[in-house]
Amino acid sequence: MSTQSNVKIDRVIDARGSFCPGPLMEMIRAMKAAQVGEVVAVLSNESGSKRDIPAWADKSGQEFVGIFEQDGHDQIVVRKVK
Amino acid sequence: MTKRVVVLGGGVGGTLVANLLVKKLRPGEAEVILIDEDAQHVYQPGFLYVAFGQKQPANLTRPVRSLLDRRVRILTAKAQRIDPTAQVIATDHGDVHYDELVVATGSHLAPDEIPGLKEATHHFYTAEGAQALHEALKQFRGGHVVVGVAGVPYKCPPAPLEFVLMLDAELRAKGLRDKTEIHFVSPLPRVFPIETVAVKVAPIMESRGIQIHTFFNVESVDPKRREVVSLEGETVPYDLLVLIPPHRGAKVVIDSGLGEAGGWISTDRRTLKATAHPRMFVVGDATNLPISKSGSAAHFEADALVANLIADLRNESQEHKYNGKIMCFLETGAGKATLLDFDYNHPPQPPEPNRMYHWQKALFNQFYWWTVPQGRLPGEKQTKEQQEKAGD
Ligand SMILES: Cc1cc2nc3c(=O)[nH]c(=O)nc-3n(C[C@H](O)[C@H](O)[C@H](O)COP(=O)(O)OP(=O)(O)OC[C@H]3O[C@@H](n4cnc5c(N)ncnc54)[C@H](O)[C@@H]3O)c2cc1C
User: Fold this and answer.
1) Which residue has the higher pLDDT, A1 or B122?
2) Closest to A60 (Cβ–Cβ): which among B188, B193, B231?
3) Is the CB of B252 under 6 A from ligand 1?
4) How many domains does chain B divide into?
5) Is A18 assigned a catalytic role?
6) pTM for this structure?
7) Which domains does chain A have, with CATH numbers?
């Protein structure tokens, strides 16, 4: 797993320390506010987010870019495509 | 000069904290003033039963005075601004200075945040809402019912599940269930925020023929077409809509710039101190803590909060810690319920629903008025000690 995404990230939401379903809801809130084409990253150290956020992207037809392991947390990246 | 502790809000958290404070403070050490906008204490869990005609709203409200120790002074006033630097609360009855403040202003419904929601939906999160829903249920003769939540966080996460299961039972009893489709919509990947509970309750819902839509973040409601639309692109038609509106912190918190997103005050999860403001504590729904907004959380937070506040008043440094304990019942319909008992480190493991928990909840709803606000039920500390003694 790489530690760095090579796409340009437009918004970063720091949801570290927030518990399930915190990071997922932060991602959904940010995606609602984002413009089509923008890339949103959520920082999370809650293990459920790694499963829930890609599943949410899949269900809502948004593009899941990837999960990047960083210092003690994950950076989960989604692009708004519609 | 005598110091002054102000408790803002006379709901579950504020009433209990004020009562515990006057018990724990030394005589003459500080006066305790509770400010509430109408000086009425509302037992919100009763609203669930109002929706089914099993309780009357009039029995769910009492004057805060009747629940408070005589040593607590009440000021009936609406707080408009809190100035944490000057330590002053501006109210519609003048300014009130404090040496220590407890913010207990609860959570509030914000249906306007979702287009169409206010016109279209019923809910049972206020007395009027629950009463109107009861009337609608009396008229209901079958069709599509959509139940769910239109935003997180929302108080008492079990309540929408309890409602949908009780609705199923009620429609069966009335012979309307085979004329009705029930759909449950949840913004989360499951029916309840905590997975251990979701895996227990979802099969019960499925066995009753309730259709579950997960990852359904309500984006708008079209009252003309009678449709709910999700951010994820799903559309569900309804004849009767019961969506819990989004919740926000109190207006005074938002207007004073004390809240994070949503108007929740950033609070230390162990000490219950506001993280950004000295001499300020937060209890109950007003916090930003990642735990269920519930009367039970407010109840179990109170011990640690009061001990820390008194230490702060005395400029002592010891810390008392809240462990995240919450305990609440979950009605599963047809006279059965289960129990959720958990803390920061131990998720709930709800037992099989049975009649005993249902009766315990019914009894609790009655005994509430003589126990919780007065601090007569064991708090977090005693519960922990009892569990340790029992070798838990
Ligand atoms: C349908 C339903 C069912 C529920 N079931 C349960 C359950 O089974 N178990 C459980 O534990 N919890 C349950 N709850 C949740 C519980 O009622 C709340 O979490 C609890 O009341 C929170 O307590 P609080 O002290 O934080 O706020 P509240 O009890 O809401 O009190 C807030 C107080 O602040 C006052 N206030 C606000 N702003 C101002 C201002 N500007 N100036 C002066 N006063 C102000 C208000 O008048 C109010 O009295 C349920 C809630 C609902 C709606």
Assistant:
1) B122
2) B231
3) yes
4) 2
5) no
6) 0.95
7) 4-79 (3.30.110.40)
